[in-house]
Design brief:
Layout: H1 2-5, H2 15-18, E1 22-26, H3 30-42, E2 46-50, H4 58-63, H5 74-85, E3 90-94, E4 107-110, H6 115-125, E5 131-138, E6 141-147, H7 150-155, H8 177-195, E7 203-207, E8 212-216
Parallel strand pairs: 1-2, 1-4, 2-3, 4-5
Antiparallel strand pairs: 5-6, 6-7, 7-8
Length: 219
């Protein structure tokens, strides 16, 4: 059954490479929940979910949680959903804020809200991981920054601008689940390029409202 499960993606997601991956998703809100679901669906064998938060009613529409998940830890609700997709998945949940001492897998997906938190995570994991991908979103604008080679690792810290420079939109215009899904899709696309040993785009920015996409280069 295992080979049949992944038969339609065999040339896109090489099994021998993905089986060596332990994926850590830090933050299972709008983007992170979708990343976890997509990683499960493409067959990552080990998934670690890190988040301290619980499901609130506003998360149902914006993050795709279920009514029955209300007040549950997001890591538990997401873990349960992922195991419904693949019962063989090994899931590790960390119901806590990410700490410098938090052990991570060799592939990290950073899906947090604050620039200061991103910097804290990067400083902690940059020398420990093979693949690092950061997903950012504000309303209908997304940015995906990936560091898995020397040039991209040098570039990534330049994207960690001061917190006061962050766009401050109204709380009612920050999160759309369709933008989160697209951001997660771009993150997974970079991951599968990495698995295939293909060039990875270090910086992708998409404005859904304006139908604009910009792919940056580190050179």
């Amino acid at each position: 059954m295992s080979s049949e499960r992944y038969s339609r993606q065999a040339d896109i997601v090489p099994r021998e490479r993905i089986m060596d991956c332990k994926a850590t998703v830090i933050g299972v809100g709008a983007i992170g929940r979708q990343v976890a679901i997509q990683l499960t669906a493409i067959g990552v064998p080990v998934l670690q979910l890190v988040d301290f938060d619980h499901v609130e009613i506003s998360n149902l529409a914006s993050q795709g949680y279920l009514q029955k998940n209300l007040k549950r830890p997001k890591v538990d609700a997401t873990s349960e959903f992922c195991r419904e997709i693949n019962c063989d998945l090994q899931v590790e949940v960390v119901l806590d804020r990410f700490k410098r001492t938090t052990p991570v897998g060799n592939c990290v997906f950073c899906c947090v809200d604050a620039i200061t938190t991103r910097k804290h995570i990067w400083d902690a994991v940059k020398d420990k991981v093979n693949f690092f991908c950061d997903g950012r979103m504000s309303a209908e604008v997304l940015r995906v920054i990936t560091a898995c080679d020397e040039k991209a690792r040098e570039y990534y810290p330049k994207t960690l601008f001061a917190a006061e420079q962050a766009h401050a939109g109204p709380c009612t215009a920050k999160t759309t689940i369709y933008c989160a899904n697209i951001a997660a899709g771009f993150m997974l696309a970079q991951f599968t390029k990495y698995l295939r040993l293909l060039p990875v785009d270090p910086d992708i920015q998409v404005n859904l409202l304006a139908s604009e996409i910009n792919v940056g280069d580190v050179n």
